[in-house]
Amino acid sequence: MATSHATSHAVVVGGGIAGLAAARVLARDGVRVTVLEGSPRIGGKLQVGDIAGIPVDEGAESMLARRPEGMDLVRDLGRSDDLVNPGTTSSAILSRGALRTIPAGQVMGVPSDLKALAGSQVLSPAGLARVPLDLVLPETPRGGDVSVADFIGARVGREVVDRLVEPLLGGVYAGRVELLSFDATLPAVAAAARGHRSLISAVRGSRAAAPKDAGPVFATLPDGLGTLPHLVAADITAAGGTVRTGATVRELRRTPDGWRLTIGPTRDPEYLDADAVVIAAPAAPASRLLAEDVPAAARELAGIDYASMAIITLAYRATAFPRLPKGSGYLVPGVESDPESGGRGVKAVTFSSVKWPHLRRRDRGLIAVRCSIGRFGEERTLQKADEELVATAMAELAATCGVTELPAESRVTRWGGGLPQYNVGHADRVAKVRSAVAAAPGLAVAGAAYDGLGIPACIASARAAATRVLDHLRSREGVEHG
Fold first, then answer.
1. Do you know which PANTHER family this protein is assigned to (predicted)?
2. How far apart (Å, rounded) are the C-alpha atoms in residues 332 and 341?
3. Cα-based torsion angle of the residue sequence 166, 174, 140, 164 in order, rounded to the nearest 10 degrees
């Protein structure tokens, strides 16, 4: 419900899910809101494409259902009854030349059930024999942040890192385990590990404390998760807000009364004044906007790297698959992690029509498949033409599933600089950004660059940013009317 603030104007820079979620909170509290998105469309990394008549997400395809923020937003939009869950969440890893089921009891690749790990045959005999040493090894010294590879490798061996943790984390961050922060990318495991000498014991304790029946892990919308930003934008405009696309913010400067934003080309600039601003843009443009008035935050943001990737979506006749692997798909380790299975270009395959039963078109007999390509530092791979990327995806499916037919339709979606890298020291970097921003009245930041890449995490950061702005506007109103 709207309260006051009708004369206050807040601008949100960035029309991804974080920016839209922040704008919605502000608009519903009575603030006059303007969302400025530089690209021709809203949604950020959420986008739906049509492949042979099947609506398939070309970016994020689901959100965590066990974290409340995303589910709460869908409920508040009156669409909770529309949510759908996967038909299966079982998946495999291509390890040692074969598809092997991801072992039960693991948390982002860190094992807790040694019997299940052995049965999966993901690890070599030598790698498997190394794992239980974690139970007897002395505590691994850990002061500040460390890399995923260093800590987990020291506890359970490098093969667990390479053939389980790396593929699973690669699907989220497209990053390098030697660089990724243990604390920032695996916060629950890292926190549990601080209370145990053994990493396996820490994961066992964490799993034992988790709810036994927490419901489905993932959820999406029937026409694709890429429809969510448009639902949020419609709610913003219904509350009196404005959502603009093709409006690139070139400069942000403090004024005696708030902030001034410069929009558009230098030859024909547009100026927009605001009482408060939420920057929900990626780290690099956020850094440029803060360079003059919040240089300490700008410096830290400039140090956040991003990985590029591409999604290749293919539609095949169901009869094209002589052997369709069980489960929703599989992950592929990098060549450094598993020379026998890695180096094939594709890092993940999702059989969308299997994972999401609502996508099945039995009358047409089609299967939609998503192939993900690209890791941090592999930008040269993505410089290939669309046709070459499609050929790489086709070769992967031929090798694993025996597919020899051409797809009925294909689509390549490129996400240049799409995934922020939470490298060692990330949490400290984010703390410095927020500390610097806190000193600037009426300014807040939100988005995937800070506390998590998933949709619920982005929405949580948006709510925190909107709350900060509302607190500022209320305090200012109190002064003006005191």
1. PROTOPORPHYRINOGEN OXIDASE (PTHR42923)
2. 7
3. -10
pLDDT at 342 over 80: no
pLDDT higher than 70, residue 446: yes
pLDDT at 450: 98
At position 131, the amino acid (one-letter code) is V
pLDDT tier at 437, thresholds 50, 70, 90: very high
Predicted pLDDT of residue 13: 98
pTM of the model: 0.94
- Please report the domains of the chain, with CATH numbers, ordered by start residue: 9-44+225-304+423-480 (3.50.50.60), 102-209 (1.10.3110.10), 306-420 (3.90.660.20)
Q: Rounded mean pLDDT of 39-45?
A: 97
Q: Specify the pLDDT at position 1.
A: 40
Among 296, 263, 302, 308, residue whose Cα is nearest residue 284: 302
pLDDT tens for 160-179 read 999 999 999 988 999 999 99
Provide the pLDDT confidence category of residue 359 given band limits of 50, 70 and 90: confident
Question: Which tens digit of pLDDT belongs to each residue from 5-41?
Answer: 558 999 999 999 999 999 999 999 999 999 999 999 9
Q: Tell me, letter by letter, the H, E, C secondary structure of the chain.
A: CCCCCCCCEEEEECCCHHHHHHHHHHHHCCCEEEEECCCCCCCCCCCEEEECCEEEECCCCCEECCCHHHHHHHHHCCCHHHCECCCCCCCEEEECCEEEECCCCCECCECCCHHHHHHHCCCCHHHHHHHHHHHCCCCCCCCCCCEHHHHHHHHHCHHHHHHHHHHHHHHHHCCCCCCEEHHHHCHHHHHHHCCCCCHHHHHHHHHHHCCCCCCCCEEECCCCHHHHHHHHHHHHHHCCCEEECCCCEEEEEEECCEEEEEECCCCCCEEEEECEEEECCCHHHHHHHHCCCCHHHHHHHHCCCEEEEEEEEEEEEHHHCCCCCCCCEEECCCCCCCCCCCCCCEEEEEEHHHHCHHHCECCCCEEEEEEEECCCCCCCHHHCCHHHHHHHHHHHHHHHHCCCCCCCEEEEEEEEEEEECCECCHHHHHHHHHHHHHCCCCEEECCCCCCCCCHHHHHHHHHHHHHHHHHHHHHHHHHHCC
| pLDDT surpasses 60 at 147 | yes
